[in-house]
Write a structure and sequence with these properties.
Radius of gyration: 21 Å
Number of helices: 16
Number of domains: 3
Oligomer: single chain
Largest sheet: 5 strands, mixed
Bound molecules: zinc ion
Distance between the termini: 38 Å
Shape: globular
Number of strands: 14
Helix content: 40-55%
Structural class: alpha+beta
Length: 363
């Protein structure tokens, strides 16, 4: 992603880029949310820049309404982008996406937050990258897998289970890096009793009407669609949980990675999760000697720039980027991939159901 400096852009008569403006707005909103509610006195620089660029953009592109101040902007942020943002200026942008969803920065906006802008979530996620680096240096293949699976399958974990893992499968990992990823649950939330999300297992946010909702919009959708009911209720004391940045950027995408892993394993193919200590997500080996390399992307918008960064894996017959079917309504891969495949050369885009179907043919 592009890096956004928090300095005001150079004065010029040029029209601001819609992409950069959206990056500024999303980053600014994340920073705004990080501030203590009672102490929200200053508008984060990124948000200020985003809003002034938004104003210019709206004037030039003729989009109404134009946000004049923060309350007006926060109000627009709850509405679909198509109503107020010049969406046509950004390829593949979903006009139905909102920056705020149910009173919280949306999954979409979190994805648009800029790398390198030091949002709290980004700093938290960095701790996992440090652990990855450590595992690569020490060539810790199995401990790395155990560590990733723990974050995905146990984003909230009791002290006793955590300690057991620490002494067993994770004993070669640096405890300090793990402590940056898992915090005491009562440090992360003021609630004494926590209601866990029935889909991802993370603690949920209490709404003003005393109901609970996952911080993640997709969980919320799937919970209704799959009739998941209520999750477990636990006492915060005695539990640890991953930080919100780790939950958002490692736990949640990981649920799809594990799901695809399990589905392909059922078919009898040889599967390796995160081969070569996370060179990519899944290596699939069929009895016919055909090998696939798969990267699972849980994106809520089609980011061409990031797509181009996916490496073709030379020792596999095919390299796939696989998206959950649930994302198709936002990404519209089926309609767009013909054009994208020309640019991506050998990398192919598939939905999870499609890749499972192809694997069945190979087995
Ligand atoms: Zn959830």
């Amino acid at each position: 992603m592009q890096s956004v400096q928090e300095k005001p852009p150079q004065q010029s008569n040029s029209i601001p880029s819609a992409t950069k403006t959206l990056h500024y707005l999303a980053t600014g909103l994340m920073k705004w949310q990080e501030q203590d509610r009672k102490k929200r006195i200053s508008i984060p620089p990124a948000l200020r820049i985003g809003m002034s660029q938004m104003y210019l953009l709206s004037l030039v592109k003729g989009k109404k309404p134009v946000p004049h101040d923060l309350p007006e902007f926060l109000d627009l942020a709850k509405k679909p982008l198509g109503e107020w943002f010049p969406c046509k200026e950004i390829k593949y942008l979903n006009e139905n996406a909102t920056l705020i969803e149910d009173g919280d920065v949306s999954e979409f906006a979190q994805e648009w937050g800029v790398e390198g802008s030091n949002t709290k979530m980004e700093i938290e996620q960095k701790a996992v990258e440090e652990a990855l680096k450590e595992c690569r240096e020490k060539q810790l293949h199995e401990p790395y897998r155990a560590f990733r699976r723990m974050i995905i399958e146990h984003p909230v974990i009791s002290y006793s289970e955590y300690n057991t893992k620490l002494f067993k499968e994770l004993r070669d990992l640096n405890k300090e890096s793990l402590d940056k990823i898992y915090k005491d649950l009562n440090v992360l939330t003021a609630e004494e009793e926590c209601h866990l999300c029935p889909r991802c297992g993370y603690y949920q946010r209490k709404r003003s009407d005393n109901s609970y909702r996952c911080y993640n919009d997709t969980c919320q959708e799937l919970r209704v669609k799959q009739k998941l009911g209520e999750g477990k209720t636990i006492k915060a004391e005695g539990y640890k949980a991953v930080t919100p940045g780790v939950h958002r950027f490692v736990t949640l995408p990981g649920i799809w990675e594990i799901q695809l892993y399990e589905e392909l394993k059922k078919l009898g193919a040889g599967i390796t999760l995160w081969p070569n200590i996370d060179e990519y997500d899944l290596r699939v080996e069929f009895k016919s000697d055909v090998t696939w390399a798969i990267d699972v992307k849980d994106w809520c918008y089609l980011n061409e720039e990031r797509l181009h960064k996916v490496q073709y894996i030379h020792d596999a017959k095919q390299t796939f980027v696989v998206f959950p079917d649930e994302r198709e309504k936002d990404l519209r891969i089926k309609g767009r991939r013909r054009e994208l495949h020309k640019e991506l050369k050998e990398v192919r885009l598939k939905l999870m159901s499609e890749i499972i179907g192809e694997a069945q043919k190979n087995c």
